[in-house]
Structures are given as C-alpha cells and as structure tokens.
TrEMBL record:
Pfam families assigned to the protein according to its UniProt record, in alphabetical order: DUF2171 (PF09939)
Stretches with biased composition (Basic and acidic residues): 59-69
Source domain of life: Bacteria
Name recorded for this polypeptide: DUF2171 domain-containing protein
Region (Disordered): 59-78
Amino acid sequence: MVDAKQVQPKMPVICSNNVPFARVDHMDGSDTIKLARDENGEHHYIPLSWVQSVDESGIHLDRPGKDAMKQWSTDPLH
C-alpha cells in the first residue's frame, strides 16, 4: 500500500491508461485524496486504496480514468 505522506498537493493523478485526469488538492484524513477543483469548480474525492504507485510523474491509479470518474465522490469519504 502507498504511504499517504507520498501524496503531495498539485501532483498529477494518472489513470491506468497513462493519462493524467486530475490534480491533488490535498490528503483529506489518512485514506482519502481530495482532488483540485474541476472545470465546474467542484472537488472530488478518491480513496488512497486506488493508488497503485507514486513517482516523480505523479500518482498512478489502478483503474482507467473513465471508471475513476464514475466512482469518485463529491462528498468526503469519511
């Protein structure tokens, strides 16, 4: 599992098909990532458990962006 301390503000969020689709706003608690506002001014939340790895290019998710966007939440997860 990825350490929450690796997740930093403004990091790109990259889906499993290697396409960036969001940026990190900040960690919300110890297991939820709050994403920066989208083009509609809305924040989204994803669980840290979706993160497969973190490296210099960003946070890599275990699912395609289309699936992640269907499953993310507009409300905090805790």
